[in-house]
Design a protein that fits this description.
The radius of gyration is 11 Å and the shape is globular. It is mainly beta. Strand 3 and strand 4 form a beta hairpin. Strands 1, 2, 3, 4, 5 and 6 form a six-stranded mixed β-sheet that branches.
């Protein structure tokens, strides 16, 4: 599974394994139970090195 680095919002700084099929869209939607949030792929695409491996940066959409 690809890794996503969250920038901004309730998940700021968190890294998640996300099923590849969820990244086919330009937005990533979390609907709870801990939080609600919509993230979009950072343009131009950026990748950060993390302890878990390279993670693509997605930013909170306001």
């Amino acid at each position: 599974m690809p890794l996503v680095f969250h920038w901004g919002g309730p998940r700021h700084g968190e890294i998640d394994d996300v099923p590849a099929e969820l990244l086919a869209s330009s937005v990533l939607v979390y609907d709870g139970p801990r939080y609600f949030g919509v993230y979009q792929r950072f343009e131009p695409v950026q990748v950060r090195d993390t302890a878990e491996g390279p993670a693509e940066v997605w930013v909170v959409r306001e």
